[in-house]
Recover the amino acids of this structure.
């Protein structure tokens, strides 16, 4: 399954499989036809999707500097020139940017408002793009399906603060994360939150989806809040399981992240 589509009254969201387990996304505002691409792991599958739909790219948004999110950009731009948006903080190590963004900035895709949030932790300078009218957020390797990105550059308290900001998004927000890691994330999640019925159900749904070769990304914020251990540091049952009833939320998060690194 090279791509999957979610359509609302106002927007079309396309998830495109790239490389071994990466995702890129296209977001189209139907009224104007304006299209944004989020991350460029590889040019070929994105070019094929644009050709199949007859879409022209208006904007390219980069979430963070890692190669597996930007390495297809040069080859894509040769056929699909469009302005490139990314974090001002990462200007020195991202491909050349046309629009440099910081936390709290906003811009528009057609008439659709896009909010930029600094979600440092996986890297310093990782940003997320939130489109409330499209009920979609592009979180790449910050908030992931049943997980969060490894802390290559940031501290546990930075990532916990980033995740806490994202946790304010509404339940029906589509969380568009960067990788198909969900089945492996589930095997870890159940070790720290074994009695959570929503997590048990999600594990069954993940197995069913993966057996059919279906994507488990995007997921919804409501499902993440109910099942993602990295959003559940406050949860009494999770705290009891890892015997950290009296610790701070940040300490619990740090321990869960540490356990995942060892898993
Ligand atoms: Zn990354
Ligand atoms: Fe990545």
């Amino acid at each position: 399954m090279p791509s999957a589509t979610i359509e609302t009254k106002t927007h079309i969201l396309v998830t495109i499989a790239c490389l071994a387990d990466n995702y890129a996304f296209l977001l189209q505002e139907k009224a104007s036809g304006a299209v944004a691409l989020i991350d460029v792991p590889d040019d070929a599958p994105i070019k094929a999707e644009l050709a199949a739909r007859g879409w022209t790219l208006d904007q390219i948004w980069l979430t963070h500097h890692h190669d597996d999110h930007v390495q297809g950009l040069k080859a894509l731009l040769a056929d699909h020139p469009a302005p490139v948006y990314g974090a001002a903080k990462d200007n020195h190590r991202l491909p050349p940017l046309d629009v440099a963004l910081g936390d709290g900035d906003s811009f528009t895709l057609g008439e659709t408002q896009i909010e930029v949030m600094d979600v440092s932790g996986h890297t310093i300078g990782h940003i997320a793009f939130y489109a409330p009218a499209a009920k979609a957020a592009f979180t790449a390797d910050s908030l992931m399906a049943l997980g969060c990105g490894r802390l290559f550059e940031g501290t546990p308290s930075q990532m916990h603060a980033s995740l806490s900001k994202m946790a304010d998004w509404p339940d029906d927000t589509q969380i568009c994360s960067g990788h198909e890691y969900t089945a492996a994330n589930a095997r870890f999640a159940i070790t720290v939150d074994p009695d959570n019925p929503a997590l048990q159900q999600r594990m069954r749904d993940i197995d069913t989806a993966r057996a059919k070769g279906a994507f488990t990304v995007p997921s919804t914020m409501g499902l993440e809040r109910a099942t993602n251990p990295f959003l559940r540091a406050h949860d009494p049952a999770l705290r009891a399981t890892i015997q950290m009833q009296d610790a701070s939320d940040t300490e619990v998060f740090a321990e869960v992240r540490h356990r995942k690194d060892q898993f």
